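Researcher: I need the complex structure. Ligand is MTE. Inputs:
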Amino acid sequence: MRRFTLLALAGLVVLAFATGLVAQGLGTGWSRVATVAHGLVGLSFLLLVPWKSPMVRSGLRRRRKGAVWSIALLVGIVATIASGLLQMTGTVRTLGPLTTMQVHIGAASASVGLAVSHYLRHPVRPRQADLARRNVVRLATLTAGAGVVLAGWESGVGALGWPGGERRFTGSHERGSGNPAAMPVTQWFTDSVPRLDRMEVTVADRFLGPEDLATLPMETLEATLDCTSGWYSTQQWKGVRLDRLLGDVAGASIEVRSVTGYGRRFPAEDADRMWLAFEVGGAPLSAGHGFPARIVAPGRRGFWWVKWVESVRPSDVPAWFQVPFPLS
Ligand code: HEM
Ligand code: HEM
Ligand SMILES: Nc1nc2c(c(=O)[nH]1)N[C@H]1C(S)=C(S)[C@@H](COP(=O)(O)O)O[C@H]1N2
Ligand SMILES: [Mo]
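Model: Output:
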């Protein structure tokens, strides 16, 4: 059981991080598959505690150099699992300056680094023999056990009437739907809200000023912004669909840039599923929500909804050629 426990733990760290990223990258119904898989993987750690604890104790008794990093890993994993479970309940929105979800992702990222170094100090190389039937049965039992814990936790959250019982399939909690003033203002890491007093947007080679607004084929649509920091909000947005704005897109992608330097690239064929929005809830966008214009991209996670749009341009660079999550 020792080899199985250690190899399972190593695999779980990788799988937990990967399923977490997928759950956060997708904005469509498939996200639920990743979210459930993530819960199963995350809770499997807890079921291995009885087998891992004796190793932790004997390891610590040996007073090896570097044990402090193993303890940091232990603290990191416990914090990750605790913040994940807390996030699900929806009872605690923030821990200090960060949302519970941001703490979760931060603790998870630190844990992955610590786990790699822990593995290098205590290597266990997988062998063909590890695929023995006994281990497959153990893995199935572990997953089933995690399923029982997950189902128990889910129904507990529902039975207690905690807000988590009504969270979206991405795990996000509702905030200020129908009331833009109550919708959180969220920036990715380093951006801050610029104060702009005039509309100036470049669309392909065309310059749009405030006087052009009335001439655009605007429509109103309901769409849900779902931020990877753990909340979502459904609003009435008013804007122009990108295919109507750009006509036939001459290029592989559409590059949208913000005055802050933030930007995202979209596949050209998505132009009929994206809007350049100027209003929310029947009023112009506030500074925080992206004045003068922002992207509304139903089905895509919040980090695609570029605010303070400066330009929308067809581009020959393929849409996949960018970091999967924005860096600035
Ligand atoms: C070592 C890495 C990680 C571990 C051990 C871990 C563990 C957990 C656990 C135990 C939960 C609560 C159970 C559940 O989801 O049903 C959870 C929830 C969650 N985690 Fe992680 N996680 C890790 C990394 C990540 C990463 C990197 C992300 C995203 C980038 C992420 C996103 C989420 C989300 C969105 C939830 C809420 C799911 C829901 O409400 O159903 N996790 N995590
Ligand atoms: C991801 C969750 C894990 C946590 C929280 C954890 C934590 C710890 C701690 C606190 C110790 C005692 C200090 C030390 O000896 O360094 C330890 C020992 C050890 N760990 Fe881990 N570990 C984890 C995963 C793993 C993995 C994936 C492997 C190997 C593939 C591994 C292999 C070992 C070994 C061989 C020892 C020494 C045991 C002994 O001396 O009897 N651990 N672990
Ligand atoms: N220019 C710019 N646009 C941005 C961001 C940013 O940091 N800079 N953050 C994105 C993220 S992560 C989200 S969730 C939404 C948040 O929109 P809101 O502040 O209107 O709620 O804006 C997106 N657009
Ligand atoms: Mo976000």
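Model: Summary of the prediction. The radius of gyration is 23 Å.
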